[in-house]
Model the fold of this input.
Amino acid sequence: MKKILIINDEEIRLNKHSSNEIYYNWNGDDKLSSSLSNYIKKNKNYLKQDYLDFVENIKTSQKNKLLSEVLNFKIYNRYNIFEISNIYEKNIFKSNKIIDCIKLLAIRKIIKEKKISEIHYYGKEIDIFNSLKIICDNCNLIFVSFNQIKLKKKYFLKTFYIIKSIIFYLIYIIKRFNILILKSNLLKFQKNNIFLFSYYVHLKSNKISNLWGNLTETLIKNKYKINWLHDFSPSNQVPNSKIFLKNINSLNNNNNNHIPLDSYLNFNSIIKIFMNFFKIVFKYLFIDIKNIFYYKKKKINFNYFLNDNLIKSVFGPDLIKNLIYIEIFENLFSKSSKIKIGLYLLENQAWESIMIKAWKYYKHGTIIGSINSTVRDWDLRYFKPNNYKKNNSYYPDFIAVNGELNKKLISKNKFINSKKIIPVEAVRYNYLQNIVTRKKIYRSVIIFGDISIKINYEILNDLEKSLKQIKKKIYFLF
Done:
C-alpha cells in the first residue's frame, strides 16, 4: 500500500481523513498534527543538530575538489572566505531561507518515519517545488505537483551583486570621508587600560551608548581607563558621520578615549580592498557552486535556498564589509602596543571572527565576549554541532552571560569549557530600577518588540487581527 505525503502551502485542509498532510507555511491545528512548524518544535534538538552538521560538513569536506577550490581562498593567509560568509554565520535574521532548510530536513525525517512512497505538492513556490523534486528523485519517490509553477530564472545575479558592491563601497568612502582622512590613533595601552568595542547606538542623554549600562563608570571607579572603538552606522539619533565625530570628540577625557573604527583605514587599505574584492570575484565568477549544498547524508540539496546567500557573501556588499573589517583590524592590532583586556558584544557575526582572529594573531591579551540579550533557541549563530572541533582563533577567551537561561543554552555547546562561561549582571537594564511604579492598570498587556522593524510590524499586524475577536477594552504597552 502506497503512503502519500501531501504538502500544502494553503490553510485549507484538502483531506480531512489523511494523517499525512502537512502545511508548509501555516501553523495549522495542533489537534490534527498537520503543521510542519509544530513538528519542528517537537523535534527541534534533532533538526537543529542536523542543520549544524550540514554547515560544518560543507567546510570540512575534502572529497570534492570543487569544494576545496571554492572554500580555501584566504586573505592574509588566515581569513577564510567561507568562515566569514552568511552561510557559516547561520544568522536567520539575515538569511531567512535557513528556515526553509530546516523544513526540508523535517520533511525528510517525516518521509523516513512514515515510510512515504509518494509526495503530492499543492503549492506554487518554485524553490520548494525544485527541492522536493530532488528529494524524491534521490529517494526513489513519486513526485506529483498539482499547481502550475511559475519558473523564475535569475539571470546575471553575480553581475548584479558585483555592481551593487562597487556602488556600496564608493558610497561608503564618500559618506565617511571625514572619518577616513583622520590620522589613526595608535593605541598605547598601560596595565590599567581596557579596550572596548561598541556600536554607536542606543544613546543616553550624555551621548554614550547604553549597550554597556553603567559598566564604564564602575571600571573608572576602580581606576581603569577605557579606549572605546566605535562602529558607526547611521541612525535617527546619529544620521551622519559629521554628528558622530562631534559626539565622540565631546566625550574624550582623561579616563575615556573615543575612537572611530573607520579611522584605521588608510589609502593603501582602500586600494587593497578593491584589489582583494576583484581577486575573489575573478576566482569565483565562472564556478558553478550549486553542488556545495548537497547534503549527501540526507539526500537533500539546499541549493535553491542557500545559493543566493553564498553569492551575496562572495560577490555582494557583505564581502566588501568583511574586507573593510579585515583591513581595519589588521591596521589596529598590528600597530598597537599589547592590549591586556578587550570587551565586545558577542553575537557571532562575521566581523567578530575577523576581530578575534587579528587579536590573537598579534598576541594581545584576554578578550571577553558579552552576550547582553536573550539567546533564542533557534538563533543558530550561537551553536555548533556536537562533534565540532573547536578553533580557538575564532572564539573569545571568556563568554559573559546574564541569566541562568543564557548560561544553560550556551553550555549546550560541548566544545565550550563551562569554566569559560561567566555569569554577570545585566547592567544594560539597570536604568529600569529608576522607573517610578505607576498605578496598576487592569487588562493591560506589555509587548516586547524585536530589533527587527519587519518583525515588529508582523507582531502588530497579528495583534490587530486578534483584537477583532476581543470586545473588551485592553491597554497595550509596546
Summary: The first helix runs from residue 36 to 42. The chain is about 40% helix and 15% strand. Residues 436-477 form one domain. The mean pLDDT is 83.
